[in-house]
Structure formats: C-alpha cells, structure tokens
What we know:
The complex is a heterodimer.
Chain A: H1 12-28, H2 33-54, E1 60-66, E2 72-76
Antiparallel strand pairs in A: 1-2
Chain B: H1 12-25, E1 32-43, E2 49-54, E3 59-64, H2 66-69, E4 81-91, E5 96-106, H3 110-126, E6 143-148, H4 153-165, E7 170-175, H5 183-197, E8 203-208, H6 222-230, E9 235-239, H7 247-251, E10 254-256, H8 259-266, H9 270-309, H10 311-354, H11 356-361, E11 366-369, E12 387-392, E13 395-400
Parallel strand pairs in B: 3-5, 6-7, 6-8, 8-9, 9-10
Antiparallel strand pairs in B: 1-2, 1-4, 2-3, 4-5, 11-12, 12-13
Amino acid sequence: MKTKKKIEDIPFEEYLRKLENIVQRLEEGELTLDESVMIYEEGMNISKICLEKLNKTKKKIEQLVIESEEKYSTKPFSEKEGEDAINEF
Amino acid sequence: MINYTESKIYTVSKLNKYIKKLFENDFNLQDIWILGEISNFKLHSSGHMYFVLKDKESQIKCVMFRGNNCNLRFTPGDGMKVKVRGDVSVYEKRGEYQLYVREIIEAGKGELYLAFERLKEKLKDEGLFSEEIKKKLPFIPHNIAVITSPTGAAIRDVITISLRRFPNLSILVVPSLVQGTFAAKEMAKKIDFLNKYFKDLDFIIICRGGGSLEELWAFNEEILARSIYNSKIPIVSAVGHETDFTISDFVADLRSPTPSAAAEMTIPDKNNLINNLSLLKSKISRAVKRNLELKTENLNSLSSSLKYQGPENKINQYYQYIDEFSARLNSRIKHRVELYEERIKKDSQRLGSLNPWAIIERGYSICRKIPGKEIIKRLEQIEVGAKMEVIISDGKILSKVEKKEVVSN
C-alpha cells in the first residue's frame, strides 16, 4: 500500500486475509528471528483490530417513523403496534 | 436431399435425422404455446419431467428437461390445465415426435404471467439485471435496514436470525405495506428515503413471506424495480418461497429465496469469525514458537560444532597427548629400573660365589706371613724357618715353615 489507509477504511476481510498470509509465511519457516518477532506482533495487532471491528457496533433495533418527505424520527421497534406503524407520506 | 430412385436405400437413423430436420426447420413448430391437460406425469430421478399433454381428441408426448423445469413455480400433476411453451421435434432413437417444453404456466394465471414476462424482458434489455452493476455487500455489516411489514413472520425471522448470527447489529425496521395497489410505490419511496437520509446503511433487505402470485405482485412492479436499480445502498430482495421469482429479485444486488435465508446469507456468524480469528492467532503463536525452537536447535548444533573445532578441543587433545606420553615415559623408566634391579641381583649372586670365605668353607685355606699378613702365593715369598698363619674355616693355625718343595702340576 502506497498511502496509509485508516483502519476504519480497511474492511475486516482484508485484515483476515493479512492474518492468513502471516500464518502462511510463518509456517513456511523461512523468516529470520527479527522478522518472525515483527510479524508475530503484527499478527497479534491485526487480530485485535479484527475483534474491535466485530465489536464496533452496538445492538440496536429501531423503527423508522417518517413524518414528511424531510422529517423523520426513530423509536424502539415493537411488533405489537401492528399496522399503525406503516406510515405513508 | 433424398433422391427417390429405386436403387437408393437409407438407414433408419439417416431417415429420422432428416425428419427431425424437417421439424426443426418448420417455423410453425418452434417456440409455440399449446394449451392442454397434463397426464401420465413422471418426474425422473435425473430431474427431467416426462408427461403427455392432451385434449379431448388428441395427445402429444412432452419432455421438460431439468434445466428448464428448475424455475417452475408449481409442481405439475396429472389433470392440471396448463399452457406450455416449447418446440416440436423428433426423438431419433424411437422415431417419435414430441414437444420439448421450456415453460409451463397454469392456465388462468396467464395474464399476470405474461405481464411479468413482458416487464422482465423490457428491464433486462435496459440492463437493469446485468451482473456488472450489482453492488457487493460488505462482509461485516453493521447497520442494516429492513423494509417489510412490521407484523409478519418475515420481520421476526430476519431479526431473530440476524441477531443470533451477529448479536451486536443495528437494525432499522422500515414498516411498509407489502401487498396491494400501493405497496410497490410505498416500498420504492422508502428505498429513496433511506438513500437520502441513511447513506451509511450497509444494505437494505426488502422482504415478505410467501403468498400467491397476486399477493407478491408488488415486487413485480416497475416502480419498485427502478427504485432498487437507482439505490446507492445495496438491496437484498427476499420474497416468498424458494420457488417464487420476482422482478425485484432480478434487479436486486442479491436475491434470497426467503426472508430467513436473506439473514443467513448476509449476516456472518460472529462466533465462527471469532473462532476463526483465535485459530489463526494460535497458529501464529505455534509457528513462531516452532521457528524459535528450530533456531535454538540450530544454534546448539552450531555451537557444539564450534566447540569441536575450537581451541578448547585442541588443548584437550594436547592434554591427552601429554597423558599418553607421560604414561609411556613411566613405563620406560619402570622397565629400566627393573633391568637394573635384575642386574644387581645377578651381581650380588656372583659376588657371593667370589667370597673367599666360601672357598675356605669348602676346605681351602689361606697362608699369610707373620708379620705382614702378606698372602703367600709362591715359594719364594717365604723362607724356611719363617712364621706364618694358616686361615681355615673356623680359625687360624700358627705354623713354621720346615721345608720348601716345588710341586709340578
């Protein structure tokens, strides 16, 4: 990578690929001691980032209430309110 | 072409091939719709369908291959009134002509079906279904929206399955009509609304549970199709059951056979991901440890071979040499000493035999002059009348020379 991208911009699966790549390189066993220490640290760091990415969002189940073409609000989702919830504009 | 001279004789297969060609070149027998009743229906294990299509007076053999029948919305059965579309051709092996069916629709459902087909063709030609424009869904979604009825089983299934797979997911439920005259327009507007105000949604699922063709019809309307096509946010279409295909399905970025399947397909299983991560992590640790062990082993073998070739070893070798050498020296000296001892023993024995006393013991005696104690070996050493002593084994005898006489021996 030429320019350093932000962690948030790099998708989870790319980090996963990096991690798999690290495993492969380590298992080939042709790294110097310094390299394997470095790559080990990188791997641990990446797996931490991956976990962070998985835990980034909070559970939230909301319902959209559209008031007009420009106005809306959200409220907790409840199944009970039934058909009333369907609002047209 | 066949030349009907009396002398010309054809094989059966050549004849059938020719007849088949006649059928296939006849425009009136290709891509036609036929109305009839299904009879003698058989679904072969290969997936191909065989049946007879008949009316009151007549019947024709039909075959519908698996590739064509997999999208059927219903399972054909005996007695069913249907419209079938296909080509008439010849099965050369048996010399039988039959209808090769490509489509079957239940008679009576024709109107909607044809409308569906027409719109499908039109949008397809415009490129709304093309694979290249389909947007990719993110591997890990965080924010999703679901446009559906807020009361149906569909929304419940989507929420339950999504949260089971990924417990910390943000789901925005967008309640909407999903059937009836206004449903398509409403869903379309809601897609547009989300695109305007919820740009960071990872994708939108539009769904409803199973129903009749009429009940699912909103998903076959052009207004919804266009909205899906224009959406910047990826759209997942999940309508009805597995066998139901709608226009929305074709335009959407991803088609799911059912609402539950939509959740299964789009929401990754977080536990799996975490397990996979820890597996990779432990693989890394193991590999590093093994690398380290290998290197240590290498170092050990190198340092031991260094020791073998180093100065320490040379010194040890010298030590050994010295030890060997001193042992050799020791044994030499010992040998020498032994030799001397032997000699001394021998000498002392010889000395013993030379002891004059030993001779005297055997009966010899020694005469010595008095005074002077000179041992007398010859006559001339003493005069007659002179005194001398005779030494014998246990003492001496004082004597006087009486006479000297030469004895010849």
